[in-house]
Amino acid sequence: MHEPALISPAERRVLAYLKLIGPCEVKAMARSLQVTAMAVRHHLAVLEKAGLVKTTLERRGVGRPHYVYSLSASADAFFPKEYGMLASNLIRSIADLDGETQLARIFEHMKEATVARTSSRMAGKPLRRRVAELAKIMTGAGYMAEWEQLDHRTFQITERNCAIARVAQQCQHACGCELSMFRELLQATVNRQEHIVAGDPCCRYIVQSRQARKPAKERSWQSSRTRVV
Questions:
Q1: Residue whose C-alpha is closest to residue 71's, from 138, 141, 34, 20
Q2: pLDDT of the chain along its 229 residues, tens only?
Q3: Predicted model pTM
Q4: Among 169, 92, 190, 182, residue whose Cα is nearest residue 141
């Protein structure tokens, strides 16, 4: 695989687009990136040769098959991963030396510190603006977060990247504290519907005003690589 420095800015834009949108055809990419289809094909050829993009042939009834492009597992290294291997080793050491209870307390303390640091950005705002502000906070932390309003009391936050992927795979407390943090900062009902650690392409949260009549149910999940606590 090519080193990251050998990938051009234009090719990085293609990688970022596929990370945000998911599997996609050339025409859609060209239209969104405002470049020609020929330019997109050139970038995809470079990325595929580098092992960062893969092609799938899809047949949709009669007519020509469709070529759909998506990120390979190797492309994950191009997106922010906070802490990395050091944090994973520290987590294992804390759990081995002090037990899971102490590890849970550490994550809870980190969550409380984050809430204390960012709660002023939520103060006095309606739920819609709190959701937008939280998405901005998470994007700044490397999670590539976006949000949308589904109805007058329901919103959706989607994280396309897990900035602490290695940590989350080792310890379920990390994801549990993120969910708890969202609930505290938003002062709303928040349930996770998709989860990167469970193999989904993103982490997706449904946010509802506490006055909503039928709150969304949280999907249960279990990763084979996540320690059950």
A1: 20
A2: 444 447 888 998 899 889 888 889 999 899 888 899 999 999 999 999 999 999 998 877 677 888 999 999 888 878 876 556 667 777 778 778 778 888 888 889 889 999 999 999 999 999 999 999 999 999 988 899 999 999 999 999 999 999 888 888 888 888 999 999 999 999 999 999 999 999 999 999 999 998 766 666 665 544 433 332 2
A3: 0.65
A4: 182
Q: Which of 123, 217, 203 is nearest to 156 (CA)?
A: 203
* CATH architecture label of 84-208: 2-Layer Sandwich (3.30)
DSSP 146: E
Count of residues in the chain = 229
Domain boundaries, the chain: 4-78, 84-208
**4-78 is classed CATH 3.40.640.10:** no
Name the residue among 80, 54, 84, 75 with its Cα closest to residue 12: 75
